[in-house]
Amino acid sequence: MDLNARNIAVATIxxxxxxxxxxxxxLQALLNRVESSYGSPEFGLLSAALYYIxxxxxxxxxxxxxxxxxxxxxxxxxxxxxxxxxxxxxxxxSVHAVSQLHRYLVHYQGGSATGLDLLKAGVDTYAAxxxxxxRQEEALLELCADVIGESExxxxxxxxxxxxxxxxxxxxxxxxxxxxxxxxxxxxRKLKAALHPDKGx
Length: 201
Ligand SMILES: [Fe+2]
Ligand SMILES: [Fe+2]
Known about the structure:
By secondary structure, the chain is mainly α. The chain has a single domain (3-199), classed as Four Helix Bundle (Hemerythrin (Met), subunit A) (Up-down Bundle). The chain is built from seven helices and no strands. It has helices at 3-35, 43-76, 81-109, 115-143, 150-161, 174-186, 189-195. Helix 2 (43-76) runs antiparallel to helix 3, helix 2 packs antiparallel against helix 5 and helix 2 (43-76) packs across helix 6. The structure holds fe (ii) ion (2 copies). One fe (ii) ion binds at residues 13, 17, 61, 65, 134, 137. One fe (ii) ion is lined by residues 62, 65, 87, 91, 133, 137.
């Protein structure tokens, strides 16, 4: 067993989960601030955060899980097919949920009286679902570590290595660079520490 390839693959997947969690937490914090009348709506930031979720998670992270991790696990055993079916269904419903959040944001920005409530409820529901989805995936990663063979872990690691998170990765894309700095500026203290671990609290 090539523990290095496996460890690299698992670490990359978990890092992508942490990136999504950070953006979800920030979305919730921003909407809570507005609901509590502590600030004006940050439409540009809300839009950029949803764009990141759509661009990176829906078009990159989830498809790579489907195409490489889940396929390799299905080829190795039928033991986890039930869980994998549920994860793949979760990926499909996530695409629709993000589209719905975009629509709620447009309604909110357009002045709809229920816009904030719908967006906030939608984000809270989506965030809870995704946090549970990622928790269950990481639990499965522990269980399947020795089930998937060395060469398959290497393929999975290589596939995820190509992802290069456009917000938190080493080659931050220009449009997400602005989002990164806005996240750092507006994030709660705990999140700031996660974004800038070298600077402490
Ligand atoms: Fe997933
Ligand atoms: Fe995932």
